[in-house]
Amino acid sequence: MTKPVAREPQRRNSRSNRARILATARRELGLNPDITLEELARASGVVRRTLFGHFPGRAALLEALAEEASETLRGVLETARRPEEPAERALAHFVRCIWPVGDRYRLLLSLARRDLGVERVAEILAPARDEVTSILERGRDAGVFHAQLPPAVLSAGLEAMHFALLEQVNTGALEDDGTRAAVVTLIAAGVPVDRAQAVVAEVAPEAAVVTVMGSRGED
To answer: How many C-alpha atoms does 16 have within 13 Å on its Cβ side?
Structure first.
């Protein structure tokens, strides 16, 4: 009867080590994509054997990060979707909610071709891409967004812009909680500047609640 009780602290310690390794990997890989697993182990405060016990190689570690990103993204999408809202509000709300997720996992794109593969990253991002394309279609049909580009093409362009902005945040050239990104997204979709700023201000309080709830869910 005593063995299961004895194992529980070990399991908790194992889960804690795994979470700490993943958190460290997100941070350190964003700074240095070539960091070794040995260096990650030291940065995580665990011995090499512990890290390899959870992740037997670089590929396993990156796949764990990819799956974590996918689960987090799906969770935010469940609360960020606003199909009943006008398209401009739905898009602004989506960008404000998804921005912290993009900031956390932008490193996946930089590692895509060399480590994860473009297909795996595309699989992770597919739900977000589909949602944005759907919103753009609604806005185009309602005359709110321009029709200069097909919605799927415009969605891809906006995604590239977002990750470029996130990189600027990473370098310290830009400070943003997603507000600026949401405004320029609406402008790029064809919304006048004053209207874009007003819409983003309108959705900011609710989007902030969704972001906080998502952050608590990751703890």
So the answer is: 8
